[in-house]
Design a protein that fits this description.
Nucleotide Exchange Factor Grpe, Chain A, domain 2, 3-stranded antiparallel β-sheet, 2 helices, 6 strands, about 20% strand
Length: about 180
């Protein structure tokens, strides 16, 4: 019995060993194919994904570039308009003074003043600075300060030259005389 048992026990492990070899070979070849397949499949996908990511990045860069160029173009355009209008302000001031003095009534210059103002309005030119306005040092230049008992805060007493804004951009501050609260 011991011989049979020893023979059978000797054969069984070798058979099991052979079966495990078969299984391990089968499993390892299946794993190798799967790993190979994954690597082969992943390589093109990663290249495709990489190319797609590059394309998307380039598209985003182009969109940002296009927006930056448009913004820069708008800034340059607005700066050019502001400089041209700023150059005409002294002439507009002279024509406004003549109009206030009554020198333009019935003259062709009255039409010129109207056309200049309409052109300024077209580009968003606004005049500011009037008697009684609250003094704002960012918008007004105080040329004269006069103490006054009737005011509690600094206000515009008289406008020497009106201020001009182009949209939100200050072209020229208003030149004003102000009343300041009297020390008491």
């Amino acid at each position: 019995m011991s011989e049979e048992n020893s023979n059978s026990s000797a054969e069984e492990p070798s058979e099991i060993h052979d079966a495990s070899q078969f299984l391990s070979e089968d499993t390892s070849s299946a794993e190798e194919l799967t790993v190979e397949d994954i690597l082969n499949a992943a390589e093109p996908q990663s290249k495709e994904a990489e190319l797609l990511a590059d394309l998307q990045r380039l598209q985003a860069e182009f969109v940002n570039y296009k927006a930056r160029v448009e913004r820069d173009r708008d800034v340059a355009r607005n700066s050019a308009i502001a400089e041209v209008i700023r150059a005409f302000l002294p002439a507009l001031d002279d024509l406004t003074r003549a109009e206030n003095h009554g020198d333009l009534e019935g003259s062709p210059f009255a039409a010129v003043v109207t056309k200049l103002r309409n052109a300024g309005d077209k580009f968003g030119l606004k005049t500011f600075g009037a008697k009684g306005d609250k003094f704002d040092p960012e918008l007004h230049n105080a040329l004269v300060q006069t103490p006054n008992n009737e005011v509690t805060e600094t206000v515009v007493a008289d406008v020497v030259e009106p201020g001009f804004m182009l949209g939100d951009r200050l072209l020229r501050p208003a030149m004003v005389a102000v009343f300041i609260p009297a020390e008491g």
